[in-house]
Amino acid sequence: MGRVSMAGWKQTQCLCISPWSGLIAIAFGTALSVIAIQPVAGQETTPLGASLPSSSLSTRAQIDTQRERLFNELAEEFSQFDRLGNLVRRVSQLVKPSVIHIEAHKVQGKGASVESYDEAGSGVVLEIAGDAWVLTNRHVIHGAAIDQIVMRTCDGRKWVPERILKDPSTDVAVMKLAPSPASTRERGMRPLPSLQPVSLPPAARLADSDQVQIGDFVIAIGSPFGLSHSVTFGIMSAKGRRDLSLGEERIDLQDFFQTDAAINPGNSGGPLLNLRGEVIGLNTAIASSSGGSEGIGFAIPINMAARVAEELILHGKLRRGYLGVTLDPEFAAAELTSYPGQYASMKMSVDTTDLDTGDLKLGGARVKNVRAGSPAETARLQTGDIVLQFDGHMIEDDDHLVARVGMAPTEQPIPMVILRDGKRYRTEVTLSQMP
């Protein structure tokens, strides 16, 4: 956990100028000294308490009228922002019961070098296969025994994990939710679940994260520095951030959202929401030189995180798709301009609905080698082929194709568009499971 320092308070000198009294008041702490301003020689003055001339009253009335008009205009303009603020408040109130504060007691090292510490994180409740599961990041709970993890909802109730499943390739984990025995004893409840069923926290609603656009307003809820159920607000800054260096974590499948909503240590595993109150991502990491939020946070798209969660729960592991090719990391999409005519015709026919702006841009991943007996060989892919589209998505680079293939379903045909010798071809591939 990070250290939270209180904002220092110190006694200050305040210079307050009253425009109409003709006095300057200087406040030192709680003592107030009043210093009279002497009139300048040769100027006429109005005795204190005497009536102001009618011209002064007229000027004052004009000022008051103008101020009233400005306040009314401000109120009209504020109403537009107030509607946005009201949305944020309603989303926060609606989703908070589905957000989980996680505390994990971890132990590292062996023998004399053993180190134990507590780490706080976040999670969000999903309903999968009829049960309540907490979706979070693997790194939030990694290194903690199942009996050393405690979860809390916003109403203060404690919960424990009944079962934990993790996937290191995506940094996704799920925990089956169960009421804490300690919490039950604290409430004086008898252990008769059939007679006194425990009310589980509500499951969050999920959005289609493929529909998220750059510039969309977003809300993050989590436990920054252990401060549970904190709410921050921002926009979607970018999509498709890959090949990030995330410390000691080895995350092979990356396709992060980027947001400027404040994300700090402890936010990991918490939901990133749209203004409909739907989860669009799982807050995971930050780019920072200070260890705190600097306006660059990363979240796993919820389509990806939810698929991993379902795979873990239903199959015990993520069944990663396997294509069977080696990609050329040195390939530059700009090389496609060597086929200007063919690429222009390809751009007119390939679906581009996954692009934020609707503008077409160069992209693709070049095949360097095709493994014998692989799904790629069965689909007749060849060395030098450039994969332009996979499963309805324009491919930006080799990392993008790796992420798409890894998360794609197996044992069913998936459409592809490739460029070979300057000509565009459509084909299908049936992926197998990663060996």
Automatic annotation (TrEMBL):
GO BP, one annotated term:
proteolysis
PDZ domain sequence ranges:
312-422
Q: Which SUPFAM superfamilies match?
A: PDZ domain-like, Trypsin-like serine proteases
Checking Pfam families in the record gives:
PDZ_2, Trypsin_2
Cross-referenced InterPro entries, in alphabetical order? Answer: Chloro_Bact_Ser_Proteases, PDZ, PDZ_sf, Peptidase_S1_PA, Peptidase_S1C
Q: What is this protein called?
A: Putative serine protease HtrA
**Keyword annotations from UniProtKB, A to Z:** Hydrolase, Protease, Serine protease
Q: Name one GO molecular function term.
A: serine-type endopeptidase activity
Q: Gene3D superfamilies from the entry? A: 2.30.42.10, 2.40.10.120
In the UniProt record, the gene name given for this protein reads htrA_3
Which family does the similarity line name?
A: Belongs to the peptidase S1C family.
